[in-house]
Amino acid sequence: MKWCETLYEPNAIYNIGEKGGLKRLTLQEYKDMMGLFFQAFDIELGDFYNMLVQDDWCAIRYKVFITNKQPGEKFEQMAMEFVNFKDNPEPIGARVVEGFALSDLPLS
After folding, report:
1. Distance CA 62, CA 44 (A)
2. DSSP alpha helices (H): ranges in 8-103?
3. Are the C-beta atoms of residues 46 and 63 closer than 8 Å to each other?
4. What are residue 6's phi and psi, to 5 degrees?
5. Which of 55, 66, 74, 95 has the smallest C-beta neighbourhood within 10 Å, fewest atoms?
6. Is 9:96 a contact under the CB 8 Å cutoff?
7. What is the spatial distance between Cα 70 and Cα 19, in angstroms, rounded to a whole number?
């Protein structure tokens, strides 16, 4: 989870799809959730289809390959993220302030 310290601002917010709505997470809540997720699933990034950037926002559409470690079941998931960046001076550079993640097969 070390990549979170590089990619996200310390006070970043991440919004995930949950039960037809959005759940708002602090960076620590997001890291805790992803830590549990990685205990149960292996994830491999697939193709990136679109990336649109305007000002400090980016929209990304990509495929993810997920393997449930217990039964070994594999499936594909299409994901869409909308991310707001903050441009910091070097050596930090751009980091996420807020993100929204959606997929066609939510795991929650």
Report:
1. 11
2. 27-40
3. yes
4. -90, -40
5. 55
6. yes
7. 24
Distances (CA, A) of 53 to 42, 60, 84, 105: 29, 9, 10, 25
Question: pTM score, two decimals?
Answer: 0.82
| Predicted local confidence at residue 4, as pLDDT | 76
Give the pLDDT confidence score for residue 107 in this predicted structure: 57
Confidence at residue 14, expressed as pLDDT on a 0 to 100 scale: 94
CB-CB contact of 35 with 43 (8 Å): no
Q: Which residue has the tokens 């217990």?
A: 70
Neighbours of 12 (CB within 10 A): 21
Q: What is the spatial order of strands in the sheet that 41-54 belongs to?
A: 21-26, 8-18, 94-103, 74-87, 57-68, 41-54
What average pLDDT does the segment 7-23 reach? Answer: 89
* Domains of the chain and any CATH numbers: 11-103 (3.10.450.50)
Query: Residue 69: is its pLDDT beyond 90?
Result: yes
